[in-house]
Sequence to fold (317 residues):
Amino acid sequence: MPLAGREGKPRDKGLTIVSDTVGHVEKGFLGHIAESIDYAKIGLSLPLILDRSILLERIRIYHDIGIKVMSGGTLLQVAIKKGILSQVLERLKTLGFDTVEVSESAMDISKELKGDIVHRISSLSMEYIFEVGKKDSRNPPSTSYLISKIEEAFDFKTSKVLIEAGEGRGIGIYDSDGNISWDMLNELVGRFGPPNLIFEAPIKMQRIDLILEFGPGVNVAGLPLDDVMELEMQRLGLTTETLGLSPSVRNVEGSPAVKFVYHLIRTEHPIDQPTLIQKSGLPKRTLQAALSYLIEQGVVREVSDMSDLRRHKYTPR
Fold:
């Protein structure tokens, strides 16, 4: 049955990246869930220790059903530390990997070396995705650190930036209990936009919260193959938690214009003033008054447009 709110493949938003430890899995099962998966990540340093024939067969299966295969960020850091970067990248290429994850989750990498890595990956006709964040929950990076690393990643022309979450507690956008740190998340999406970020969400409730906040088009990573169909139902509003995709919206007081502008900001954020005028059809003066009211009430935040610091965008708090 046709269901609204979900793009077909290839898609630019609503990406699902699964984690595959290359254990036993039925090919028929993969075929059934293939349309819901965009990338399969064979993480850790598995490409270095697994039998070549096993990897070739698993990657071939993924390619046959239209799923891209990517490496994990740990592998690249191991390659750098052991001085085998060229050999590892060549191995990934010959195995059929489509995408290489570039990460600093366990060690810092200089901008110069990142530039060299990106050049090497591109010369092998593979893609790359940057991941930001650290795995150490004892010393989690600040919001400003994540912002600087995301900006740097986009300077290297990454298509998306993946937010590290580790096991889902005390890392990235999650607190020690696994709950989303909303101030941090709103700051990140307010600057870069949800479509440009991929959120690792290894815990079920994290995925539900992200879908309720950003809709079925949110990009999600870090889930096992067995959870793919449940995630797809959550995206489509077919589970108890996401039925109707009705997130809890603040009761915003004000005129109909104010409520309409707030609705547009919640559903389209980050959004600039010209786009709000176009979508709302409101006079500029009316729109500006609504924005001022929403900002004063503390339900909308004005942030700088990173592509042009003279302009501003608006995002919900």
Observations:
- The CA atoms of residues 137 and 170 lie 5 Å apart.
- The chain is about 45% helix and 15% strand.
- The chain has two domains: 16-244, 256-316.
